[in-house]
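Quick start: what a row looks like.
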Amino acid sequence: MSLDNEDLINAATEARRNAYNRYSNYSVGAAIVDDSGHLHVGCNVENAAYPLGSCAEAGAIAAMVQQGGKRIVKIAVVGGPGEVGPCTPCGGCRQRINEFADSNTVILAIDDSGEWQEYSIEDLLPASFHLP
């Protein structure tokens, strides 16, 4: 499967429509292309006990791992309370992405101008924690 940035962004936007966000009203969708070229998506799922909710990126990563994916080649994150707005991964998701990223992993997120920005994991999580 060959997915360009627009395909990945559309998949994340579609996943965002299924977010369960009754507490924050902030929907997030994520779409990953793994090292085998497969697509995996996730959306945020909130819970009344706030720490028990899960981020869209975590859901997409779990789907990737369950399907046998080992590395994130590219991930798109789409969020916002209404129209798609600025949404880079939270700190915990930056670490989650880092676990499956390498120096070539591309992270796409929309910015305040409405344009998609491209980041590396080093851009978003410099001097990150790694186990040997």
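That is the whole record. The CA atoms of residues 23 and 61 lie 23 Å apart. The longest strand covers residues 72-80.
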